[in-house]
Amino acid sequence: MTIQPVQIEKAYRLLQIGPTTMISAQHKGDADVMAAAWVGIGGPNKVVAYLGTQSYTRQLIEKSGYFVVHVPTVQQMETVLYVGEHSKSTMPDKIDSLPLFYQEDYDIPMVEGSAAWIVCKVLPNPEQEKEHDSFMAEMVAAWSDDRVFRNGHWEFDSAPAELRTVHYVAGGQFFAIGDGFKFDHGPGQD
Amino acid sequence: MTIQPVQIEKAYRLLQIGPTTMISAQHKGDADVMAAAWVGIGGPNKVVAYLGTQSYTRQLIEKSGYFVVHVPTVQQMETVLYVGEHSKSTMPDKIDSLPLFYQEDYDIPMVEGSAAWIVCKVLPNPEQEKEHDSFMAEMVAAWSDDRVFRNGHWEFDSAPAELRTVHYVAGGQFFAIGDGFKFDHGPGQD
Fold this sequence. Notes:
Structural class of chain A: alpha+beta
Largest interface: A-B, 60 and 61 residues
Protein name (chains A, B): NADH-FMN oxidoreductase RutF, flavin reductase (DIM6/NTAB) family
Domain Flavin reductase like (chains A, B): 14-151
Cofactor (chains A, B): FMN
InterPro entries (chains A, B): Flavin_Rdtase-like_dom, Flavoredoxin, Split_barrel_FMN-bd
Mean pLDDT of chain A: 96
Keywords (chains A, B): Flavoprotein
Oligomer: homodimer
CATH superfamily of chain A: Electron Transport, Fmn-binding Protein, Chain A
């Protein structure tokens, strides 16, 4: 496998299938990773993320103005639960055991094993952030594991099952993404 | 099957798995249905929906302050494409062929065959609506097809395959939701 860049105009497709995500952030060397099920597309090249006030990662995002949205995979389900169950506020070594890597130009750790990673730059909207814990951000760079997303398309049918995206319900219940259906037409032209 | 109410506190679970949606709205007897892939959870009991300015349905929502988010199913994939491909602006009879029904107290048509329907009341945020086409709304009522969502949980494993949710990529490419995975713990306690 290789981790390859995703055209930013196509990066919305990484999130359009509605996966549960992980979010990472870093400020002055202090980094954290959280689980986030309430992250979606806010418009062309834009993300809307609900970040609760209790989240340590949110504090880092407020300081740095950047975060990375991960599209986690079946092989990472325990990791998604783990980063969602623990807070760095009370567990300073929370992320020390995670397999992290960095992409050039961005000082934000990314977790190995995800299907994709999207660097997002906050578009400040103080009222929405304060009143609704809702953060809007612009996608500025993205990469994918080319075994599962390449040339702007998800390739779940040919990818290992453990690379399917995960979709969280509640109480430890996940669903993986399932069968594909292709029509010869669609609202979009591509 | 019966269509049963969903506890509003659990209605977020209808959208948390990230399905592509349909949205309907009505104002003074004028109704429309659109496809919407950029609809997600904006917080507890809240929805964030991207509604492009070209959308006839958006105009109805701006006038009425209400819309219904549908969670469509595999059996409705052609319907999702159909309502996404056509605009009522140029096709006044667009929704005449759809199997519509109404729930008591709400003058908004709902499309039969979906897994769930969520009535949402717009929480006005003029700047976000104008600048980002982003609408925030409160979930005020919800129903589900009890064959596939009951007692606050998705039951895809026991439901007919055609009731699985749909997750759109682009160019006519959909994925249905797939296999379930249950852990005995999770970030949430329920």
